[in-house]
Specification:
355 residues, alpha/beta, Aspartate Aminotransferase, domain 1, 42% helix
C-alpha cells in the first residue's frame, strides 16, 4: 500500500525518553527527585470531582493569577498556557519559523528545538560550544543572517549551563531586529538561577520568554508551559494553538501552587541547599564538578561515565544522564534536589565510583 507521508516527519530521527522509570531514584531528567509535599497533592486531588473531569479546560482564571504571581507588570494579555513547554516550542516554531529558513541555537541544547526544526522543515543552525564548555556570543551573532527567523537562548542552557549577560542579550536582540527574527529565551530553570529576562519580553517587540511547571514546580506529569511576550506575539501564538491544549488537572495544580508561594520558596531553599552540599562534598573528595546553574550539575567520575551510570542503575536503581557526544562524554549529569535526596545519591555514587 502506498500513501503520502510528510517527508520532514518521515526523515526525522527520534530518540524518546526511557520508560519504566517509576520506582527508580530519578536523577536523570532534571525532575524534582522527591516531588511536591504529599499533603499539598492530597488537598488538590480532593477537588478533582466527576463534574470537574467532565468540563473542558478553562485556563483564564489560572492565567490571571499567574500574571499577578509573576509581577513585573505582566497581564493576562502577555500570557498563554501550553501542554508543557514542548508544545510551546512547537507553536513558536510553527508561527515564526519559515520553511527552509534558519533557527539558530547553541549546541548541545534542549533537543526539542532541533527536533521541531526537522519536523517542520526549518533549517537548524547549531552554534557549537568551545572545548572548555564556554559559548561565544560573537559566534551566535555571526550565525544570525538575513535567512534567520528565530534565535533560541536557553538561560541557563541545558545541558551545559551557561548564562547570558544583559549586554549579550541586547546584542542578539539588535541583530535579530535587523533581519526580522524573533528571540526565544527559554527560562525553564529560572527558579534555580535568579536572573530573568522577563522585562525584555514585555517591552521588546520580538522577544519571547518560556517558563515551565516541570522543574522547580515539580509538575512534569501534568504538562504545563507558559509563553510570555507582548500582546501581539501572544495573539499570533493563540491563533495557531489548539483550542483545548492545557488540561484542567495541570491548571488546577498550578493555580493552587502559586496561591501558596511559601511552598515555592521552600522548594527553592531545599534545592539550593542540596546543590551546595552536594558540590562541596564532591569537591572535598577531589572530583571535578560544574554547577550548571539549573537543578542539575555535571560530575566527572573517576571511571568511565557510561559504566558508572550503568552500574548505578543496575546495582542501586539510580538513574543519571551520561552523554554520547564528544564534548560531554566524560561527564554524568545529575539532577539536584534536597540535601536528603543528594545524600542518597552521593552514598551510592561513591560506592560505585570510589572502588
Amino acid at each position: 500500500m502506498h500513501y503520502y507521508v510528510n517527508e520532514n516527519i518521515r526523515d526525522t530521527y527520534r530518540v524518546f525518553p526511557p520508560q519504566g522509570r517509576y520506582g527508580a531514584l530519578r536523577y536523570d531528567m532534571n525532575e524534582n527527585p522527591e516531588g511536591l509535599p504529599k499533603e499539598f497533592v492530597d488537598s488538590v486531588l480532593k477537588e478533582i470531582t466527576p463534574e470537574f473531569l467532565s468540563i473542558y479546560p478553562e485556563p483564564d482564571r489560572f492565567l490571571n493569577k499567574y500574571a499577578a504571581f509573576l509581577g513585573h507588570g505582566v497581564t493576562y494579555d502577555n500570557l498563554t498556557a501550553t501542554n508543557g513547554s514542548d508544545m510551546a516550542i512547537r507553536y513558536l516554531l510553527e508561527t515564526f519559523g519559515e520553511k527552509g529558513k534558519d533557527v539558530v541555537t547553541v549546541s548541545p541544547s534542549f533537543e526539542m528545538y532541533w527536533v521541531n526544526c526537522s519536523i517542520l522543515g526549518l533549517h537548524h543552525v547549531p552554534v557549537a560550544y568551545e572545548k572548555d564548555l564556554t559559548i561565544s556570543i560573537d559566534k551566535i551573532l555571526d550565525a544570525i543572517t538575513e535567512n534567520t527567523r528565530i534565535v533560541v537562548l536557553l538561560n541557563p542552557n541545558n545541558p551545559v549551563g551557561n548564562v547570558y549577560t544583559e549586554e549579550e542579550l541586547e546584542k542578539v536582540i539588535a541583530k535579530t531586529r535587523e533581519v526580522g527574527a524573533v528571540v526565544i529565551i527559554d527560562e525553564a530553570y529560572h527558579y534555580f538561577y535568579d536572573k530573568t529576562f522577563l522585562d525584555y519580553a514585555l517591552r521588546e517587540d520580538n522577544v519571547i520568554v518560556l517558563r515551565t511547571f516541570s522543574k522547580l514546580m515539580s509538575l512534569a506529569a501534568c504538562r504545563l508551559g507558559i509563553v510570555i511576550s507582548n500582546p501581539e506575539i501572544i495573539h499570533y501564538v493563540k491563533n495557531g494553538r489548539l483550542t483545548f491544549d492545557t488540561n484542567s488537572i495541570a491548571l488546577l495544580f498550578a493555580e493552587r501552587l502559586i496561591e501558596q508561594p511559601e511552598i515555592v520558596e521552600e522548594l527553592i531553599r531545599q534545592e539550593k541547599e542540596g546543590k551546595a552540599w552536594f558540590l562541596e562534598e564532591l569537591e572535598k573528595r577531589g572530583y571535578w564538578t560544574k554547577d550548571c546553574m539549573g537543578n542539575f550539575v555535571f560530575v566527572k567520575p573517576r571511571h568511565d561515565a557510561h559504566e558508572v551510570a550503568a552500574r548505578l542503575e543496575k546495582e542501586k536503581n539510580i538513574l543519571t544522564h551520561p552523554y554520547g557526544n564528544e564534548l560531554l562524554k566524560e561527564y554524568i549529569r545529575v539532577s539536584v534536589g534536597s540535601k536528603q535526596a543528594m545524600k542518597i545519591f552521593l552514598d551510592a555514587f561513591l560506592e560505585i565510583d570510589g572502588e
